[in-house]
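Hi everyone,

Forwarding the result from last night's run.
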Amino acid sequence: MDGQRAETLPAVQENAVQETLEAEKASILKQPKAVWATALAAVFAFMGIGLVDPILPAIAKNLDASPSQVSLLFTSYFLVTAVAMLITGFVSSRIGGKRTLLAGLAVIVVFSSLSGTSGSVGELIGFRAGWGLGNALFVATALAVIVGVASGGAGTAIILYEAALGLGISLGPLLGAFLGGWQWRAPFFGTAVLMAAAFIALIALLPKTPLPERKVRLRDPLLALGHKGLRTTAASGLFYNYGFFTVLAFTPFILGMDAYGIGGVFFGWGVAVAVFSVFVAPVLQNRFGATRVLTDTLAVLMLDLIGLGLAAGHSVPVVVVLVVVSGALLGINNTIYTELAMGVSDSPRPVASAGYNFVRWMGGALAPFAAAQLGEHFGPQVPFFAGAAAMVVAIAVVLGGRRYLAAHEPHVV
């Protein structure tokens, strides 16, 4: 009798996993118009991350700048985004989610337009910093708004958010290549038009969001990091993002391609991010648990970065394949890191998200400049080896704090 129960239990668990996944898939498509409007706006916002990738060599040539100077386009953007994350909850809890989203979009429209008028790399770096402020106001608030209005629970909302991220990251290089192949300034004006369209769509489709019962204080995101589970997630996310943006910001300089070629490579990369974040990450997480999947994919990403280092300067086709493979791994990790950040602590989700994003975007700010400097001084292989070392640290942080992440594991069956 006990043997029969033992044999039946795995089948019951497998059925439970399948039922959960089928319910999530069904609920993802049944969303209010406000969710789709916010998600579409998020796609446009995330396009700004990879938009400049295909035109980095062209910017360097036209503005007489070195790769490390051009890399500051990412650094200024993400540094301001990281710091501004600390004020997003403060602002949105006082003026409401909808107004905060619209303010973020308006700032992006202004600074993306100004970026297209830049006469020097210094001006462009400054305008990208202003763009980062708008990005922070929009991105942090968009996740909270989608979670608040989506049907199907927080898990479904996070998958929708990550789908928007992946789609935006994949389309950004494509738009950058399409417009940048004509004129390097054009992608910035194209982004301004898209964000203006998103602004109008949110005005029309997103209802006024209620103010939270308690206003968020400026120090709340930092206090939220006092929770060991959230702090572990954020610290690991910092080193993970270092590897992420080493691939995104440095690889265009070693491909030796024009804007269309670079755009095509990173479109494939972005599609992998989107597909694996939406369809693969939930399956793996339900099957094996967040901590195990995170450490395993970080380990494979480490090997991928080592492969990129070995191939850099020797085999462009191998680099292209490894870049696309990295997109799949990044897609899985993006979803799991976000779910951990949103659910591992007892802080309100917008506060936890702000604290987590403040720390992890610092990795995105540091990586582009550090990678360019390492590449210029020590060769194109070294930035990727440094990224691989960052993955080792990210894994060590997760393993060291895995008992604090246990609160997020009960859904594993």
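The two ends are 22 Å apart (CA to CA).

Cheers,
N.
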